[in-house]
Amino acid sequence: MIIVTTENIANYKVTEIKGPVFGLTVRARGIGKDIVASFKGLIGGEINQYTEMLEDARKQAMDRMVANAKAMDANAIIMMRFDSGEIGQNMSEIVAYGTAVVAEEE
């Protein structure tokens, strides 16, 4: 599966647009990570526990987006983006989205 953030794929021609495609995941922070993050927030610096959680969430959202594109018989996703939001005080939503297409080498 070719995934690009651009409208075009170098050396490929889009022959069919399948439509919008997305992958969504919601993750909750555990109390242990919140406690560690609170202490880390006092002294500053990167909070590795949250970084790892969000990185895993992005990977899962992308995997789900790719699965949806494959179900539409697409072989590429163009204009791919991430979006995120908060649900409540300890949950994060991550969505990966783009346009599923069929692309052929030129």
Automatic annotation (TrEMBL):
InterPro entries, per the entry: UPF0145_dom_sf, UPF0145_YbjQ-like
Name the record gives this protein: UPF0145 protein KHA91_14295
Gene3D superfamilies: Hypothetical protein apc22750. Chain B
Stated family: Belongs to the UPF0145 family.
Origin: domain of life: Bacteria
Source organism per UniProt: Lederbergia citrea
Residues that span the membrane, as ranges: none
Any one Pfam family match given in the protein's UniProt record, by short name: YbjQ_1
